[in-house]
């Protein structure tokens, strides 16, 4: 039987914004109804197995710093250690009141010398996770296959110059989809950390991208056969570890899906830190994906504005989380997607309390954002201002004719020659007023 | 009759790499055959009217610095001044041996109080340019409409929240297409400097992008009616002056074209400085566009690696120009596109010789690139190494089955379970050797 | 007599955070005592003449968009127009309740064909400003000489390769210091927009930097002679318009001051947007300057995280303003410096109300920051955590010996050989908890 | 006795630029006299032990990829493995004809459970290295202490909030200096990867920087006592692994040295990739350091222009290496410093030939730069143009008076009032001509 690993930490409670207790929620109140639904249903929080359980604090210049209690076990049996980790993870899910979790196949179970053995080990760990889910009511938000860590994938997985590597990756995705299905997972994610190039000099762009499309098409076919319910999701990132990743950002990924006829089978999982590394705000990427009908799920994290790599920090900027939740509320929610904390402790944060505090900081920040966005939408200030700004497209014959496709350049030239200078009646863009209105709601 | 404005400058001649004369070509020898065609046919150099004639050296912190001789004329008649500028431009085209030129409508002729007057002035200047073309054999590479400078376009042209602004822009495009046709122009370009947003808060992304698509569809219809021969070209740029421009980069623009069914009518004009501002190498953008069948023309310039805005410098990095010409040679040339020097003098370069030297520096750099790329392709070193790298897709049954779409995840799982660890026979990526090979040809 | 230019706008009042009126202060309540002083004394708000009165909305790709009422006057007399602008400015200062203002010599009075005439025009405008100050109680926070706009400064002012340009710049600084003195200005600023290089190839770094030091030494001598009371301030910026500006950031400027023995005469004016362009947070630059004893004044603005140039937006990020005010409160205030809004309207904001709203947005944001920082300091949470973190330097013999300079490497080797592994007792860095604590105060 | 590990690779020979053999030098001809000295004396190449021997191809998203022959040994004895690595390293030094090497203490010998044991292991490995040096004539360019990898240094070494960590770091530096001395090392380097902060919120900037100064002062004292001949060198880097490193760039480090009176004891080791990460060109950092008298040694590598982290690639850009060698030639050489290849193979380059090719690519690139820079200096084109540009400081009375400190603002105002507008006679900056001249020499 499992012994509680963190007896000093109890179940985290909502205490309201004025509480001085750090180990409490100040904004996230799971059952409170905001904008017509309980907060937990809007937010659909998910914990990332890889960061929470497996991140050891090492970085390119430094060794591991974490000495988590679940790692302290007699050496030898890797599946036993995997069990221990899984139990620790469920203890954290429970204490934090997080409803969902996400995993890579290789996070939860070891890679063994043969694929058959590895698959068998995965089956054992999945069986335990299924039990723990049944006991706790926790659910998988999404699963994914880790196609970037093993050196066989150094030149790419679906985009490897080597066909046997492609086959290995395909086998791994099949098994990871089955594991996700077994655990009732609602989505399945592809992040192509090695699907890109280190130098264009040695790269056949066209072949690699066609192969990636072939790979994804096979996955979509198998998804249907397997009966996995939710959408498949691609996760854009501009680079790192690749010098250039093919799924650079939302628009690049949309181009790829459209070109290869994959836009019916795939949506996107947007990560905020990836957005900023690609030169966009997170809000830009979310709004763009929503406009394209591709917003499936969110990796809620944030980067450091001064660093050029993926820091995977918990989201704490309330203005940003307010904007994120604006997009989510406007599209009526994320389900079957959710908000996965693809975020980790700083290397120097070595106490188990830090792990709990970090999740609290992210959950509270997203909850503040939800409360702010809900008030903003309900008051309707921004929406009204914006509707007014575009009124000529709705309220004038010219606007309606253009959007209805009834006119061409020649018609419009006649209009333009007859009209006075449009600048003379052009309203201000009022950016400062929009920012004041937003700022008033960011609390 | 026109009096020569720069009598001190003669026609620039090819003198070879060892000449010490700065006012000579050291690498560009127009009629010399390289890789089966004269250099002038591969390179199709074009001079940009706006930078060469109209850039006055002002910047956001400083006043004009140029005192060009063509601007010294009795005040009053703007069309007269436009004539004077056009004659100076043709003198420069002639002395530099540049075959093509590019223009915005508002570069070559003044914007007057009414659109009708403005159009009439444009007609007069176009008539002169046509005469000068006939006398000199120079040709228009592309024309475009300036939809970013006038304050009426401050919120966008095709993406304005205001329908009358859209109409004005449409009228301007119609007229600019007619001017391009009249001058025998081979392509027509759209650069949407204001087609984007300053803040998402006041922006209706979906409406604006649909309107942009409507606008481009009208232009494509009118192009066919007018009988303009070459393709329409979109020119991606990530931002500046907009905070975000919708045509961010090649992939973003491809997504837009595919989504709106415009990919048959439009290709791209790739600018190197825009590529680097978007977080890509110029070579990446060129190769991506070529792969997508969208590489129409090139704005040959370069940016400063340490600055975050568009410096529009002449290309002088020979490694970069070698890679650019590799893409061009591989796709068999750019025609009807070409290499337009969307590049300007530094603000502090105030002598007329600087204008000539700057173009020499760019033409020689592209010519060195052409010579290097031709030798590289003819020797075939990189192509052979790359073909070898991907041989498993061609030479193994597994590779052929995958690319033929004959197998799915289940088949590949069987293959993977049966095969030994692929890493054990995975060749090196050999990036350093590829770089040595390239470096040997960069001379 | 002056006629009110903006009769529709009254004096802006404090209405509290729940007011729905945009043209009101929601957080800035000038006389309210916060942390022992009225808010106006902590904040010492200043309006920038150049942005508020002179910015016309033009950008590198676009013409002017503003049609301010003060510019609508019969053509001809530039000094008359300068008077009109100055009166408009004081009306704005008054209506917004801003106590200070800042100016460049060439903002407030025209540059005429000779220096003597230009100086005379400046005298006239300064005389009017002095009258308006006397009537309103407004004060100059700092003056400065505009040594970047005129083409004579294109290669630099104090760092020009040309000695007569240096002399001209020196004359201009002398006169601008006199104007500042005449207006009771409390500080004098140097921003070296052209003191840097466009290319190192044509630059003599050592000579240019020595000349800059000579120039500043002359200014310091003349300041003493003139009896200008406050400090001279350098304003760091990494680049733009220069490719590289010598006063790159706080540390670079500190190195320059120390090397040339100027650190007694000069402090710094830190601009937030310049900080982020240099790859630092604004808080980093403020804390670094404060640590070095060089924090003189602040240009309170902010940049866009996705753009690579100076956008000079009003500060609206409350987390950032909270941190800024933390530094200010910790050093006991900024006087004789202050918070100057070196910030401008977006190009598309063309209504006079926008100008007022923009200043309200900045003033309220800084006031929210002040309120947050005061509560944070008074509760002492961060300060206590930090003191605890460094306690070994205060509470152990080893820490005291090291900081007292009593030990060397040999002594410390003996200590290290004798002690157990320090990692085993090393506390967590607790970054997430620090961020939670800050976040709780950001309201 | 040692058995050759790479029998397939012979000693790399100079074959000239037209050779097709990749495993040969095409430009580096060690004994050839260029600009008055043999190439080997100008270039003073050094191989980095950490990258060459210890880099295993792992990255933040991936496991090790290298299977170097020297790592294949019976498990158990770490010092035995260290011996094996050292012998392999000397074989590479020999085959590549590299004269110098650099190391961290923990690269060459293992970290054992106690400092005493670790020191003893280091002594053993140093003894072997000394033997190998004696046999081969190879020399240490510099040694350094690895104060960033072990978790005890996670909060900093000299800037740790914990005094016992400071003591441990001091002991490690003492021992590493002794090892460097024992091996006849010519310099000793400090790179402070953890001397900075992850968040300012938990950081006492002033205390940390004073402690860093104390630490360096102790090292300088011990250096004198020990009789280490060459200078101590600080190596600037802006960030990574720290969010902000105190030795951000050349100027920041210079400010630190000046402020703490350390500028007599320390010079700088400039790394090109660190320069570009700090927002500077490598040439800028080298020229700035040279101007300040602080250029001690160079880490010759380069970064990827599109990535925001330290890629540590071998230098291959000939324009860049030409500029680097210009600085080196102008200051008469780098000795006792040199050109250390702080550069590593790409993760995907897994063959031992890649390691040799990579060094050849860097050595040839630096040699091409040397040849180019020598011709450029000997022809004197750039130097003459630049001398002319600044002639007014030498050739006019005004220029001489200013640089001699004979005049003040009042004198210069008199000059300025009397002189005509300086812009009217201001020469062009001629950047394009300078670039043409440089380009002609980049071959």
Question: Characteristics of this structure?
Answer:
homotetramer, 2 domains, eight-stranded parallel barrel, 443 residues, alpha/beta, 17 helices, TIM Barrel
Explained architecture:
Four copies of one chain form a homotetramer. Chain A is of the alpha/beta class and 443 residues long. Chain A has two domains: 33-379, Divalent-metal-dependent TIM barrel enzymes (TIM Barrel), CATH 3.20.20; 383-441, no CATH class. The first copy, chain A, contains 17 helices and twelve strands. Chain A has helices at residues 39-43, 49-54, 78-96, 105-108, 115-136, 163-182, 205-226, 250-259, 272-277, 282-291, 318-330, 352-379, 381-389, 392-395, 397-403, 409-418, 431-441; strands spanning 33-34, 37-38, 45-48, 100-104, 139-144, 187-190, 196-197, 232-234, 244-245, 266-271, 295-299, 339-341. In chain A, the strands form three sheets. The first copy, chain A, has an eight-stranded parallel barrel, surrounded by four helices. A two-stranded antiparallel sheet of chain A has the order 1-2. The longest helix of chain A has 28 residues, at 352-379. Chain A starts with 32 loop residues before the first strand and ends with a helix. In chain A, 60% of the residues are buried. The mean pLDDT of chain A is 97. At the A-B interface, helix 6, helix 7, helix 8, helix 10 and helix 13 of A face helix 6, helix 7, helix 8, helix 10 and helix 13 of B.
């Amino acid at each position: 039987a499992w012994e509680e690993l963190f007896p000093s930490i109890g179940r985290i409670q909502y205490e309201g914004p004025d509480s001085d207790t750090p180990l409490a929620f100040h904004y996230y109140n799971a059952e409170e109804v905001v904008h017509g639904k309980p907060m937990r249903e809007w937010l659909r929080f998910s914990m990332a197995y890889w960061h929470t359980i497996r991140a050891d604090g090492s970085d390119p210049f430094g060794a591991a710093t974490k000495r988590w209690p679940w790692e302290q076990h007699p050496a030898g049996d890797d599946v036993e250690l995997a069990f221990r980790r899984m139990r620790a993870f469920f203890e954290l899910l429970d204490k934090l009141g997080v409803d969902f979790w996400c995993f890579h196949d290789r996070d939860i179970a070891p890679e063994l010398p043969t694929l058959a053995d590895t698959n068998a080990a995965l089956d054992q760990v999945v069986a335990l996770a299924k039990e723990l889910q049944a006991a706790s009511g926790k659910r998988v938000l999404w699963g994914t296959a880790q196609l970037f860590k093993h050196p066989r994938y150094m030149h790419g997985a679906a985009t490897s110059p080597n066909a046997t590597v492609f086959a290995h990756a395909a086998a791994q995705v099949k098994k990871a989809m089955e594991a996700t299905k077994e655990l009732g997972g609602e989505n399945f994610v592809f992040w192509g950390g090695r699907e890109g190039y280190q130098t264009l000099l040695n790269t056949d762009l066209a072949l690699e991208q066609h192969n990636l499309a072939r790979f994804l098409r096979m996955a979509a076919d198998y998804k249907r056969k397997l009966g996995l319910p939710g959408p498949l999701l691609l996760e854009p990132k501009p680079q790192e570890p690749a010098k250039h990743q093919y799924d650079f950002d939302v628009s690049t990924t949309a181009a790829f899906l459209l070109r290869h006829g994959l836009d019916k089978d795939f949506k996107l999982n947007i990560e905020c830190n990836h957005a900023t590394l690609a030169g966009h705000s997170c809000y830009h990427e979310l709004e763009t994906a929503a406009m394209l009908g591709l917003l499936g799920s969110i990796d809620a994290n944030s980067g450091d504005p001064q660093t050029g790599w993926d820091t995977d920090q918990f989201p704490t900027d309330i203005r940003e989380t307010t904007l994120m939740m604006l997009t989510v509320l406007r599209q009526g929610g994320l389900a079957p997607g959710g908000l996965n904390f693809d975020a980790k402790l700083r290397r120097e944060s070595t106490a188990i309390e830090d792990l709990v505090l970090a999740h609290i900081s992210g959950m509270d920040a997203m909850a503040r954002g939800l409360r702010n966005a809900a008030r903003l939408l309900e008051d309707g200030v921004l929406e009204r201002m914006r509707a007014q700004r575009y009124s000529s497209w709705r309220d004038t014959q010219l606007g309606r004719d253009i959007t209805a496709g009834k006119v061409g350049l020649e018609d419009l030239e006649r209009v333009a020659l007859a009209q006075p200078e449009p600048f003379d009646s052009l309203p201000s863009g009022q950016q400062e007023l929009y920012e004041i209105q937003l700022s008033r709601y960011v609390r």
